[in-house]
Amino acid sequence: MSINIAIDGPAGAGKSTIAKKVAADLNFIYVDTGAMYRAMAYYFLQKRISPDDEKTISAECQNAEVTIAYKDGEQQVILNGENVTGYIRKEEVGNMASATSVYPQVRQKLVELQKQLARKNNVIMDGRDIGTCVLPDAQVKIYLTASVDTRAKRRYDELTSKGVSCDMEEIKKDIEERDYRDMHRENSPLKQAEDAVLVDSSDLTIVQVVEKIKDICKEKCDL
Ligand code: DC
Q1: What pTM, to 2 d.p., does this model score?
Q2: Counting CB atoms within 10 angstroms of each CB, which of 49, 63, 113, 138 has the fewest?
Q3: Is residue 143 domain-shared with residue 219, that is, in the same domain?
């Protein structure tokens, strides 16, 4: 039987950075489910569909085929045969993903793909509903969070280090809006699973969080 580790939490808590490192150390496959929602969102943006147009989005789901592959250990997202990994990190795509992931058709399709991957492989999967909905029987569940101020500062530093000019207050507002939407939607809202371990990364370094999560995994799975 495969071993499944679920990591959920709000945007900017460091889920993907941490999950990638834990996966490499434990020799697990890392599955970034947010990237799947972003690929679908990228498709809707290209088609110029409004995020409010549930009918068209639901119908268009069947035309957007999302799969994942691995290149040099990094997850690649393939949308209708095209590798879109390099196009899905923009704020615009993240906001569209948050807005369109509320629709059941979008979720059904991606959750099925996520379950299949976890059945066949030892995975660390991160997202919003992994412990509560996608992998309710995961051997390890982590809820990774950090304060809004910490997450905004991390995002600000990331963008400015890339030479992108940005405004701290705008970033904070974006994070708060995204949190609200992800936590209050009707379908699979972001929340801590009852059996998840809470890890707050606000005052911890990446290495400290990785070690903490590896310790939890070793304790729970006898790795
Ligand atoms: O983790 P991320 O920022 O790449 O995710 C983008 C959006 O996708 C997020 O705001 C909500 C949605 N999402 C989701 O609904 N369920 C998941 N398992 C992962 C992401």
Answers
A1: 0.93
A2: 63
A3: yes
